[in-house]
Amino acid sequence: MNIAVFDFEGTLVDFQWQLKAAMKEVYPLIEKCISSCNLDREIIARADYCRLYNYLQKNIFDPDLLKETINLIDKVFDFFDTDATLRWNLYPEVHKLLNNLKKADWGLALDSNVGRKALNRMLEKFSLDDYFDLTVSRNEVSLLKPEIEGLNRIRSFYRDKFSADQAFMVGDSVTDIETARNAGIKVAILVNGEDKTERLLAHNPDYLIKNLAELENIFKLY
Fold it and tell me: Among 95, 103, 150, 201, which residue's CB has the most CB atoms within a 10 Å radius?
């Protein structure tokens, strides 16, 4: 069974998340655990929002402190999710592409670092609910992409229908490329999303596309 796993922001809708503003709010919130847990400030300073989240999950061993810290970060991320919902626009090719893939019996899933509340609101607003067999948000996993916890949930959902050589990740970022590589599946990346084209090319996606309509020809190969 052919399966396409889509990212959400920057892939089905335009990229609107305020990354720098969100991280500016997160850093003061984690100062307590940086000191008490001897975390690496250099790693934290280099990390983007998802890699910071994953670093904290893996390196704070006090369960109460971890829960407190992640809850604080989730509140910030939820705020910026909500902020992005005010501006997200659905790409014009989305409905035609998903309709055609469903008609061709593709399995369709969604793996997003966006929180469940905002994701559900947008899936309903843009009439996307019925296309996806399974959607995974930030709130269903402990580790965000590029870790493959979300993809493993999708793999488990499809069971023996999920074959790495028939599965695709569709995204817009280096994070999505790394997620696909970590899962051993192919990846198609849309430009003009989270990362600049030059950075995307440096990470060698299987396909680099200018719009989602290009996927129809690519997927016919499979």
Answer: 150
Q: How many CB atoms lie within 10 A of CB 177?
A: 25
Q: Which amino acid is at 36?
A: S
Q: Which residue has the tokens 């696909």?
A: 180
pLDDT for 194 equals 94
When pLDDT is cut at 50, 70 and 90, the band that residue 221 belongs to is low
Residue 222 has pLDDT above 80, yes or no: no
Q: Note if the pTM is more than 0.85.
A: yes
Report DSSP state, residue 5: E
Amino acid at position 207, single letter: Y
